[in-house]
From TrEMBL:
Organism: Corynebacterium alimapuense
Protein's name in the database: 4'-phosphopantetheinyl transferase
Pfam families: 4PPT_N, ACPS
Amino acids binding CoA: 46, 54, 91-92, 113, 157, 161, 171
Keyword Manganese: no
One GO BP annotation of this record: enterobactin biosynthetic process
Length: 218
């Protein structure tokens, strides 16, 4: 489902497609106890999402040469705590989980987000889109991308996931202006100061009922 071209060449990634309505706890139950403890009081659907995403992360780390790899715990604002010298990102949504990792000597920070390829409710669109982005959404919808607003949401989420490990600061939806391009790329221009980088570049795709966006800061 995920195309390797979404990520830098040094990356390793893994994903799973699951039953949307019936959570499978097997991956959660096989996690390290310290990982299980992070969501031990959550409902089964949350445990399944967490377990599957962490399983994907461990598979990707193994492909990167980290075997065995330590438990992936949680830092500020839920940020995954990756092993030393690793950058990465996780995502989970109904029926789909994924993770990507890369050597931090090649990639400083990464972001990955996936959502069902469905339009957002109108009230949500108005809360995430800047005026210039609204014009882009009209253009993309006219070109046949009915879930353009969901793509914008994913691109901003992936941007935030790459931004936070670099800054340890919140980034609101109105603090980045995303230029979505029909060729499957986007640029998120950061409107806050100070910033370690002026923009964060990304790639996107729509496949098998999902919108997927990824970002990387080299």
């Amino acid at each position: 489902m995920i195309d390797a071209q979404l990520f830098p060449p040094s990356s390793k990634f893994c994903y799973v497609v699951t039953d949307r309505d019936h959570p499978d706890l097997q991956n959660y139950l096989n996690l390290h106890p310290l990982e299980q403890a992070l969501v031990s009081r959550a409902v089964d659907i949350r445990k399944a999402e967490f377990g599957d995403a962490r399983w994907c992360a461990h598979q990707a780390l193994h492909e990167l040469g980290h075997s065995p790899n330590p438990p992936i715990l949680r830092g500020e604002r839920g940020m995954p705590l990756w092993p030393k010298n690793v950058a990465g990102s996780l995502t989970h949504t109904k029926g789909f989980r994924a993770a990507v990792v890369a050597p931090s000597s090649r990639v400083l920070s990464m972001g990955l987000d996936a959502e069902p390829a469905e339009p957002l409710p109108p009230e949500v669109v108005s809360s995430i889109a800047r005026p210039g982005e609204m014009a882009q959404l009209l253009r993309l919808r006219a070109g046949g991308l009915d879930c353009a607003d969901r793509l914008l949401f994913c691109a901003k989420e992936a941007t935030y996931k790459a931004w936070f490990p670099l800054t340890r600061r919140w980034l609101g939806f109105d603090e980045a202006e995303v230029d979505l391009r029909e060729d499957g790329t986007f640029i998120a221009y950061l409107l806050v100061r100070p910033t370690p980088v002026p923009f964060i570049a990304g790639r996107w795709m729509v496949r098998d009922g999902y919108v997927i966006a990824s970002t990387a800061v080299n």
